[in-house]
Amino acid sequence: MVYTITLHLYCNDKPDSVTRLKAKLVEAAHIYRQDQGTVVRLVMQDVKDPKAFTIVERFEKEESQKFHLENPYWRTFDPAVIPLLDRPMDLRRHEELEVTA
C-alpha cells in the first residue's frame, strides 16, 4: 500500500518570500525525487492564492520515508523554509485506500 504525506505551507507577506519559497520547494523536489522508495514528489501552488503551497510525497511504504529523513538535504529544508512562512507547516500522513473496479 502506498504511503503518502501532504504538507501544506502558507507564505508570509514579505516581498520576495513567495519567489524564495517556490525556488526552495522546486529545488527540494529535484533532490527528494531521487530518494530510494519515493514514488513521486509533487509541489503545487494554489491557483487562487499564490501564497499557499502543497507538497505531496508518495512512498512505496511507510518505512521508505527513512531514506528521505536521512538525506543530508533534509537538515537544510526547515531553516530555509520556516522564516518564509506565515504559520506552521501542516503535515498529514495518509495510507491510500484500495480502490477496486
Q: What is the topology?
A:
Blueprint: E1 3-10, H1 17-32, E2 38-45, E3 52-59, H2 65-70, H3 74-81, E4 90-95
Antiparallel strand pairs: 1-3, 1-4, 2-3
Q: Please, could you describe this protein's structure?
A:
The chain has 3 helices and 4 strands, in the order E-H-E-E-H-H-E. It is of the alpha+beta class and 101 residues long. A 4-stranded antiparallel beta sheet has the order 2-3-1-4, covered by helices on one side. A hairpin with a 6-residue loop joins strand 2 (38-45) and strand 3. It is globular, with a radius of gyration of 14 Å.
* Helix/strand order: EHEEHHE
Radius of gyration: 14 Å
Tally the beta strands: 4
Which sheet architecture does the biggest sheet show?
Answer: 4 strands, antiparallel
Largest sheet: spatial strand order: 2-3-1-4
Which percent bin holds the helix content?
25-40%
Determine the mean pLDDT: 93
Shape: globular
Keywords for this structure?
globular; single chain; 4-stranded antiparallel beta sheet; 101 residues; alpha+beta
Can you summarize this structure?
The protein has 101 residues and is α+β, with helices and mostly antiparallel strands.
